[in-house]
Design a protein that fits this description.
Helix 3 packs across helix 4, helix 3 runs parallel beside helix 6 and helix 5 runs antiparallel to helix 6. The protein has a 5-stranded mixed sheet with strand order 5-4-6-7-8. It has a 3-stranded mixed sheet with strand order 2-1-3. It is 39% helix and 17% strand. The chain starts with 12 loop residues before the first strand and ends with a strand. It has 7 helices and 8 strands, in the order E-H-E-H-H-E-E-H-E-E-E-H-H-H-E. It has a domain of 135 residues: 60s Ribosomal Protein L30, Chain: A (2-Layer Sandwich), CATH 3.30.1330. The chain has 193 residues and is an alpha/beta fold. Helix 4 links the parallel strand 4 and strand 5.
Amino acid sequence: MKYPKYYDEIEHIVLKDELSAFLGATEEGIIDISYLEIVKMAGHSCGVVSGAYLMALKGLKALFGDELPQRGRIRVELRGTLEDNTGVSAQVLSNITGATENTGFLGVQGRFNRRGLLSYGADIESFVRFTRLDNGKSVEVDYLPGKVVQPKEVLQTVLDENAPEEVKKSFPERWQNMVATIFANANKVIEIK
């Protein structure tokens, strides 16, 4: 599978998952998630997918410090709703944290439940709030890609039915250059509160 090489330079998100350890899926429950894996799950790479990945990466570091984040032990609350296209971000965040609204793993004798850990329409100032289930500590994370890119402007260049063939042909590369710019400026586009 060919893909933009900058994906390989993006920091992985490493977590510990008690369910994975319990079932023997990974040694000691260590889960290593790359951006490429998230792209495969989403089926594409864009400002929304990259933003959700970065919010998880930076937010979980702020929440857990030097500890490995505990996948399946994190509540994810999104300010947005499904009506305003928050679902793509929610899917990425669910894939990384294990949190689901009502479709995830129900658990084994009261352990490892993933349901009810993701919700929409939260009364928060930021895009998302992550909360540890073990101690109640939480962080809010905002994503502000407009500080470095304008995705709608890049997209608009190819949506114009009169766009020159050269513009249409160069669109995928220009789109991925935009996403690479987001990653290169992660400290500008992600705010932890």
